[in-house]
Structure formats: structure tokens, C-alpha cells
Amino acid sequence: MKDIVTDCVEYTLRYRYTSIGFPVLGSESVGYPPDEVVGWIVEALAEFRQSGKETTIKNVFIVVDPTHHLAVKHVSNTK
Fold first, then answer.
1. Residue 75: pLDDT band with limits 50, 70, 90
2. pLDDT reading at 35 higher than 90
3. Residue 63 DSSP code
4. pTM of the model
5. Which of 18, 29, 26, 30 has its CA nearest to residue 71?
6. Phi/psi at 72 (nearest 5 deg)?
7. What is the residue-averaged pLDDT of the chain?
8. Taking phi first (over 0 means left), then psi (-120 to 50 degrees means alpha), and beta for anything else, what does residue 26 get?
9. Measured between alpha carbons, how far is 79 from 75 in angstroms, rounded to an integer?
10. What whole-number distance in Å separates Cα of residue 58 and Cα of residue 52?
């Protein structure tokens, strides 16, 4: 998951986009807990931020099914 997030961020930077969104994938079809998937996305974004690379990204959206209450709580606690 981290590699996918990093690849998406790199793509976003290459084309100088200012926003990026990540759906919480795998929580339904593969059975990963949604809060874990959100955690992996947040972790990968934090690692990228700590790398010190210059970025054009101003907005990051993590798209969570609102019925996944723990995942929604996880996202709101990482601001």
C-alpha cells in the first residue's frame, strides 16, 4: 500500500497537481480493516513529507465509506 501511495504522490508531483485523493481500497474485497488501510495511507504520506521533497500538493483527500466509523475517526485524529 505504501508503494502505491508513494507512486501516486510522485505522479501528482510530476504533473504539478495540487490535490490528490486516496480511496480506502481493499477493506471490502480483501477484508483489510478500513482503519488499518487509512493508517497505511497516512503513514506513507507522513514518510513522504519527512523526506523533504518539494511538493505542489495542497490538498489530500482520503475517501472512506462513512459506515466505517473507526476509519473515519482515524482520519479525523490525524489532522
1. low
2. no
3. E
4. 0.79
5. 26
6. -65, -40
7. 85
8. left
9. 7
10. 15
